[in-house]
Design a protein that fits this description.
The protein is of the alpha/beta class and 277 residues long. Helices cover 37% and strands 25% of the residues. A hairpin with a 5-residue loop joins β1 and β2. The longest helix is centred in the N-terminal third of the chain and has 16 residues.
Length: 277
């Protein structure tokens, strides 16, 4: 009986050392120094690359950052909601708000980190001026990003949207289409792959970077960095509601807003990724 009781007490003491949200756990290293593990989901480029710079800063504060890479826009949010991730870094707030509405999730933004300008890229047609009647343009098919792509096309005089549709616009909200353009809605990850088959493509910044494209040098047109879109579509750190003030999460946000990360973004992406701090 005494031996069994001692084992139970030992187990209880071990369990009390495990605290925090999701995978955010407090442990100790070999020297007995307290450490915290923070697990964050991210798109491969540029989010995971930026997080790996922040990782070095967090390590100095006794926080181990584990970055889990995702190739889609759904699983990172599902995993934060379930607690399998402490946070994610891949999306902007309009997408997050729509995701919460569609999936009854309880996710919130805690910090805006960077902005990736959308660009229009040449496919089978080399320039916007050369677009023929009935040309095909691919755009992302997820709600807020589709609207963003359509507004960029409107800014080039290619289409005109209905008044007041805002950032919920879809192809159904095109009021004028003088060239009879065919707007082809595709999953965002497929847009760069569509280039050989379409005349132009409007591509999300992260997927353009993954394909070796830079909005400032390769795109035929890009969003204005001072536009409403730049403020609206800043990429954020997302957590489950209630975890906004977790010390490890706050440390993550501070690390991502550091001079070291800002310098990395500016030097690495040359305008394709713009710090928002």
């Amino acid at each position: 009986m005494k031996k069994t009781s001692l084992i139970l007490i030992a187990l209880i003491l071990v369990l009390t050392l495990i605290t925090g949200c999701g995978n955010n756990t407090n442990t100790a290293d070999e020297q007995g120094t307290p450490t915290t593990t923070l697990v964050v989901g991210a798109s491969v480029t540029p989010h995971a690359e930026i997080l790996n710079v922040a990782k070095e800063i967090l390590a100095e504060e006794g926080i181990e950052l584990k970055v889990v890479e995702f190739a889609d826009y759904v699983q990172p949010n599902i995993n934060v909601e379930s607690g399998d991730l402490d946070a994610n870094y891949f999306q902007h707030k309009p997408y997050l708000d729509q995701f919460n509405k569609d999936n009854n999730t309880h996710l919130v933004s805690v910090a805006a980190i960077h902005y990736e300008p959308f660009g229009i890229y040449a496919g089978k047609t080399a320039s916007i001026d050369q677009l023929a009647d009935g040309a095909i343009i691919s755009v992302p098919n997820d709600g807020t990003n589709e609207a963003r792509a359509l507004y960029l096309l409107e800014a080039q005089g290619l289409i005109k949207l209905k008044e007041g549709v805002g950032f919920s616009a879809t192809v159904l909200d095109i009021a004028e289409n003088p060239k009879n353009l065919v707007i082809k809605e595709l999953e965002a990850a497929q847009l760069t792959l569509s280039l050989p088959d379409v005349d132009l493509a409007v591509i999300n910044g992260n997927y353009a970077i993954q394909a070796g494209l830079n909005a400032t040098s390769d795109a035929l047109a890009i969003e204005d960095k001072d536009s409403e879109a730049a403020q609206t579509y800043a990429n954020i750190i997302c957590v489950k509601e209630g975890n906004e003030n977790d010390p490890a999460i706050q440390a993550l946000c501070n690390a991502l807003k550091s001079d070291k990360v800002k310098e990395f973004i500016e030097n690495t992406y040359e305008g394709a990724v713009v710090p928002m701090f």
